[in-house]
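Severity: low
Component: inverse-folding endpoint
Summary: output formatting inconsistent between runs
Steps to reproduce: submit the following structure tokens with default settings.
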């Protein structure tokens, strides 16, 4: 992955979430009623969020965690409540603003314990100035990058992560490949960022097989499929 291709891709994603789909994603990730396809996507995302959070220790006191592509901040707030010092970062400044608003409202209502801390930021998840982390969680973020680029992102995460990477990928299927091809016939301004199908276990295996990933191994894997939502969680940890 070249720096130019990464910047181009992140710019497309930022434009989509900040200008095209902000209202829809606020509804999807909030508690407002939704119907049809969005209901299955919300249900699938909630199941995935619970899966990733469940792979981390219940007590996260002393952990520093990067929530890459934090969106509305739901996962960040849960990890904070369990004692973690969380950096929630997203390309969309508007979504980050929404996450900060949600955090302030929940803490005012005292429905979220303040065992840890959360710092919501808008910017590049690969920015080295973010520092080092015990764990990086990237839920439904790498699905928007071609497999070779997703692996490159994970390599860079691993360079500043002490314990583990938890991420999701879009498992390859005939339906997803067809949707990807159909989407290419629409003008770029009218479509969401593409979701790239991949083989999650193969990508994770290729990742840890590299010489500079010595000491890392593939851990748990879990596919979540609910209606129009299909994603696969993968864990890569230091041995």
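Observed output (run 2 of 3):
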């Amino acid at each position: 992955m070249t720096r130019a291709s990464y910047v181009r891709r992140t710019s497309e994603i930022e434009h989509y979430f900040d200008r095209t789909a902000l209202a829809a994603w606020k509804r999807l990730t909030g508690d407002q009623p939704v119907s049809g396809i969005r209901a299955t996507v919300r249900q699938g995302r909630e199941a995935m969020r619970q899966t990733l959070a469940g792979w981390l220790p219940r007590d996260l006191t002393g952990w520093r965690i990067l929530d890459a592509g934090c969106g509305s901040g739901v996962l960040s707030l849960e990890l904070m409540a369990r004692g973690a010092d969380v950096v929630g970062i997203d390309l969309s400044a508007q979504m980050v603003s929404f996450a900060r608003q949600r955090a302030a409202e929940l803490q005012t209502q005292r429905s979220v314990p303040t065992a840890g801390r959360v710092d919501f930021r808008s910017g590049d998840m690969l920015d080295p100035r973010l520092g080092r982390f015990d764990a990086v969680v990237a839920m439904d973020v790498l699905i928007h990058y071609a497999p070779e680029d997703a692996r490159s992102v994970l390599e860079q995460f691993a360079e500043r992560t002490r314990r583990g990477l938890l991420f999701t990928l879009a498992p390859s299927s005939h339906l997803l490949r067809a949707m990807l091809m159909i989407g290419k016939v629409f003008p770029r301004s009218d479509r969401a960022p593409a979701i790239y199908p991949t083989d999650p276990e193969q990508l994770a295996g290729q990742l840890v097989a590299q010489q500079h990933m010595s000491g890392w191994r593939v851990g748990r894997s879990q596919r979540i499929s609910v209606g129009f939502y299909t994603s696969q969680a993968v864990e890569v940890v230091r041995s």
